[in-house]
Amino acid sequence: MHDEQQRDAEPAIAAVNAAVAERFAFDDGQDFEDAARGFVGALEDGCVRDAAGAVVWDAGAYAFLEADCPDTVNPSLWRQSRLVSGHGLFEVTDGIYQVRGLDLSNMTVVEGERGVLVIDPLISAETAAAALALYRTHRGDRPVTGVLYTHSHVDHFGGVRGIIGDADVAAGVPVIAPEGFMHHAASENVYAGTAMARRAAYMYGAALPKGPRGQVGAGLGQTTSTGSVGLVPPTLTVTETGRTETVDGIRMVFQLTPGTEAPAELNVHFPDRSALCLAENATHNLHNLLTLRGAQVRDPRVWARYLAEAADLFLDGTDVSFASHHWPTWGRERIGRYLAEQHDLYAYVHDQTLRLLNQGLTPLEIAERIQLPPALERAWHTHGYYGSLSHNTKAVYQRYLGWFDGNPAHLWEHPPVEAARRYVAFMGGPQNVLERARASFAEGDYRWVAQVVNHLVFADPGNAEARSLQADALEQLGYGSENGTWRNFYLMGAHELRHGGVGTPTVAASPDLIATLTLDQVFDSLAVRVNAPACWDKTVTVRWSLDDGRRITQWLRNGVLSHSSHARAAAGQPDVEISLGEADLRAVLIGAVPATELARRAGISGDPAKLTELLDALDAPDPDFAIVTP
User: Fold this and answer.
1) Beta bridge partners of 246
2) 485 phi, psi to nearest 5 deg
3) Sheet of strand 329-330, all strands in order from the earlier edge strand to the far edge
4) According to the model, what pLDDT value does residue 594 have?
5) Local confidence band at 414 (pLDDT 50, 70, 90 cut-offs)
6) Alpha helices, DSSP H only, in 61-159?
7) Is there a smaller number of Cβ atoms within 10 Å at the N or the C end of the chain?
8) pLDDT(428) > 50
9) Which of 156, 399, 198, 182 has its CA nearest to residue 290?
10) Cβ atoms within 10 Å, residue 40
């Protein structure tokens, strides 16, 4: 798909990208050797479809990366995307294989005595099934005898139903995960899941056309698949470092690494294969301390310490390390250097941000000033293809000091639209802003154009000239970005300014994820949807009496929806009491069954209209809210 409104790279961006090509060692082919090592075979067309025939993954869409890097892409990102876009089955070491390039993440297959242990079965059932089929094409139709989730992000468990089902678990197939996995896998998608999914559409650029002027990758992987997401709950939880398990003759030693790349994560060593799986704790880029889609801030100090611990525990027995993204590293000396540099990378970002923070610098000032040491910058795997030095330093600041930079002028600023109208008036009106912004664009100051014209777009979103100039500025910033997610954010912003919203290609939560929520989480997910101003003066109390004897009281008061199973909460008289089973309660709360159907499923005493009144106080989230316009 070609967008006629897209522009070529401006001379200033072409010069920046040319300087990158001169600055770094692009003649170093080690990563390309490693990424191709052990290749066994690939899907014929690299395309994966769902049951209806819709494409959920198309590796062939990135064939354009085999050409020379154009001016519209940062050469370092082009290099990384070429490395990541290769797809197929690869032998890591004797008895360990990876399927790479069929989703954002890798799926690892470890051969046992009877079958295989599958590690991190991708995002979608369709891509995971295709990955397993590719493995079986070349290695035989071995059964799945175990599944291991290294951590609680969806690209490491969402495709599990393409690998196993409930019947397999009932037959004894173990599903292994780190402590806290279920809580974090579900909760991440409950409270802010809609906003995260919308922002993820920008971060991964799945809706952008693939090509030199569009989406070229996301640094960590190419993009996210768009198939069916599921979750089979773990049957075995790893609760301590040093724990060993043997599944189908495969001996594993675990290291828990909570609070690193995910709140629940682990590394795993295979001593009989001299192989170390580093989950997503050490990949071939600087990772996010705060992902652009939104999440809780990660702790780089803890992250660095767990990397050092991994080396202490396992390096002497490791000849190959691999992760759930990117390609392996072979050789004990190289692995040691890789782990040391990754350790130093996260420790440096943490420590130097704190040093500058304690000298009074603000997040923006720290992000502009901080630089990596030359020795770290020379290592390709420290580059900010997914995380960035800029937004990671801001994340560290946020972790310690929060959103406020200490300047009282920033305590009570006007919201975007109100501020924008005032800025535009102060700058002499729309035409004056456009005239001066066009001059800045011609000078190559695209950051300033984007900052200034954003005010004009928010003051008057119907101003076609402003939208066009803003789109052009964002596009140039995308063309110059080394970071894949920055490029996608910039180009998605430009695309939506030119063409309107494109929607969100992924859903916040699948039925499997919703089914794993505790009742507390389900009730909490309703509380964050209350339209409080519309019900400030309403008071409603509903009691749920479950078949197993539990009594949960839910009340709406002062625009706050609360719940409790405490005896004190159950002492008062509710407006309505409903007796039913937990499955029916869940169905009503998540909207799968309308409240009007309860009479057929439940015993009701009191005023049933009060339940309707309570549920009517809830807003529906907006999965396609505006980002680059008001």
Assistant:
1) 251
2) -75, -30
3) 244-247, 250-256, 266-270, 275-277, 320-322, 329-330
4) 86
5) very high
6) 75-85, 125-139
7) N
8) yes
9) 399
10) 16
Cα of first residue to Cα of last residue in the chain, in angstroms, is 28
Of the candidates 462, 508, 498, 484, which has an alpha carbon nearest to the alpha carbon of residue 630? 462
**How big is the chain, counted in residues?**
630
pLDDT of 355 higher than 90: yes
Per-residue exposure over 273-311, b if at least 16 CB sit within 10 Å of its own CB, e if not: bbbbbbbbbbbbbbbbbbbbbbbebbbbeebbbbbebbb
Closest CA to 86 of 49, 156, 30, 35: 35
- Say if CB 113 and CB 142 are below 8 A apart: no
What the block records as the tokens of 630 is 């008001």
Cα atoms in the 13 Å half-sphere on the side-chain side of 82? 20
Q: CA geometry: angle at 462 spanning 458 and 468, to 5°? A: 85
Question: What integer pLDDT is reported at residue 534 of this predicted model?
Answer: 97
- For the cut 60, the answer to whether the pLDDT of residue 46 exceeds it is yes
Report the range of poorest mean pLDDT among 99-108, 200-209, 527-536, 591-600.
591-600
Q: What number is the average pLDDT over the span 362-382?
A: 98
pLDDT tens, position by position, 581-597: 999 999 888 888 888 88
535: left (phi over 0), alpha (psi -120 to 50) or beta: alpha
pLDDT at 188: 78
Q: Residue 569 pLDDT > 80, yes or no?
A: no
- Reduced to 3 states, what is the DSSP secondary structure of residue 577? strand
Amino acid in position 414: H
Mean predicted lDDT score pLDDT of the chain: 95
pLDDT at 116 over 70: yes
- Identify the bridge partners of residue 553 per DSSP, sorted by sequence position: 543, 564
Q: At what angle do helices 484-499 and 464-480 cross, to 10 degrees?
A: 160
Cβ contacts of 474 within 8 Å, gap of 6 or more: 450, 490, 491, 493, 494, 497, 628
Q: Are 183 and 463 in contact (CB under 8 A)?
A: no
The full 3-state SS of 455-481, as one line of letters, equals HHHHHCCCCHHHHHHHHHHHHHHHHHC
Which pLDDT belongs to residue 506?
A: 64
Q: Which residues contact 89 (CB under 8 A, 6 or more apart)?
A: 39, 40, 41, 42, 97, 98, 99, 134, 135, 138
CA 526-530-536 angle, 5° bins? 140
Q: Report d(CA 204, CA 627) in Å as an integer.
A: 15
330-364 burial code (b ≥16 CB/10 A, e <16) = bebeebbebbebbbbbbbbbbebbbebbeeebbbe
**Among all chains, which residue has been given the structure tokens 């072409």?**
14
Look up residue 492 and give its two tokens: 């998605």
pLDDT in tens, 126-164: 999 999 999 999 999 999 999 999 999 999 999 999 999
Measured CA to CA, the distance from residue 358 to residue 282 in angstroms comes to 29
Q: Quote the pLDDT of residue 507.
A: 61
Cα 323 from Cα 22, distance rounded (Å): 30
Task: Give CA–CA dist 11/603, Å, rounded.
Answer: 72
Q: Model pTM?
A: 0.96
